[in-house]
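> example.struct
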């Protein structure tokens, strides 16, 4: 399995790490400042050095409980960072946005992949993704970021998430997105109770069987905070355990803050496979 974007190829026969790039600007800034951009570039260089194949760049609008960020603010934060990284690094760049205009401008600025937690349901997003002709990550979310964690319910979370993702994939294919350009994401923490997150994690292999690459985003999430009673900065062990569980079931892309440690986990798993051949 591989992803192709323009001249770039990402081989998924071994798992790849997507590093989360924090582009929250310094206080009183909407982004675009020299210090914000150079800070982002330093983080980016570091993550690529540690083994990230993809950098996911987002302007904060999709965070659970978050207020919406204006389109212009998102553009101001994200576009200069994409341009800068494009100049200096040859990793894949992912734009984490649900807004059509942000996606379009990001791809024009050099983004290789669209990561949309709303699975291209926003106004104009599907059309932009079709024209952009780059891989897209479709994520499951129940409800809207602001309210989605208020007692989400499912009869059967695995069945419902699977049905949603397959339906969105079909809509995308019918609109003109190539099947090989679609990545699925179970959407940990997005309208899910603790039990739902763990039921989905255990069912990752069922999603892998659908024959789309599966992206797993667990890093530092509250499914570890709640379970382990750890605050946001003490969830590394939980996140690595979760990553390994997803990797063992065949998830091809792991989206994380802690690139170096996640790469080590992948290498340990690969050693088990290599030395038992
Ligand atoms: C606060 C809570 C801040 C949660 C940020 C988050 C995913 C994503 C996010 C994911 C994909 C985070 C989340 N999570 N995109 N964007 N998959 N594809 O932990 O799981 O970064 S935002």
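> example.seq
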């Amino acid at each position: 399995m591989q992803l192709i974007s323009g001249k770039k190829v990402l081989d998924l026969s071994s798992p790849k790490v997507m590093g989360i790039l924090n582009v929250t600007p310094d206080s009183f800034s909407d982004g675009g400042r020299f210090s914000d951009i150079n800070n982002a570039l330093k983080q980016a260089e570091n993550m690529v050095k540690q083994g990230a194949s993809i950098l996911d760049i987002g302007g904060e609008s999709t965070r659970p409980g978050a207020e919406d960020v204006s389109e212009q603010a998102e553009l101001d934060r994200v576009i200069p960072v994409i341009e800068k990284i494009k100049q200096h690094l040859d990793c894949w760049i992912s734009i984490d946005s649900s807004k059509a205009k942000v996606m379009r401008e990001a791809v024009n600025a050099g983004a290789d992949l669209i990561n949309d937690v709303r699975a291209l349901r926003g106004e104009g997003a599907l059309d932009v993704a079709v024209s952009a002709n780059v891989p897209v990550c479709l994520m499951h979310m129940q409800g809207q970021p602001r309210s989605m964690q208020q007692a989400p319910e499912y009869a059967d979370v695995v069945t419902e998430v699977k049905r949603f993702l397959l339906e969105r994939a079909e809509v995308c294919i019918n609109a003109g997105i190539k099947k090989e350009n679609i990545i699925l994401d179970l959407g940990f923490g997005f309208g899910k109770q603790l039990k739902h997150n763990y039921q989905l994690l255990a069912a990752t292999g069922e999603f892998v069987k659908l024959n789309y690459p599966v992206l797993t985003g667990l890093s530092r999430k509250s499914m570890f905070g709640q379970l382990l009673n750890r605050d946001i900065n003490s969830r590394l062990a939980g996140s690595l355990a979760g990553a390994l569980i997803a990797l063992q079931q065949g998830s091809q892309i792991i989206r994380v803050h802690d690139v170096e440690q996640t790469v080590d986990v992948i290498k340990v798993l690969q050693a088990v496979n290599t030395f038992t051949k």
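> remarks
Strands lie at 2-5, 8-11, 16-22, 54-58, 92-96, 113-116, 136-139, 182-185, 214-217, 253-256.
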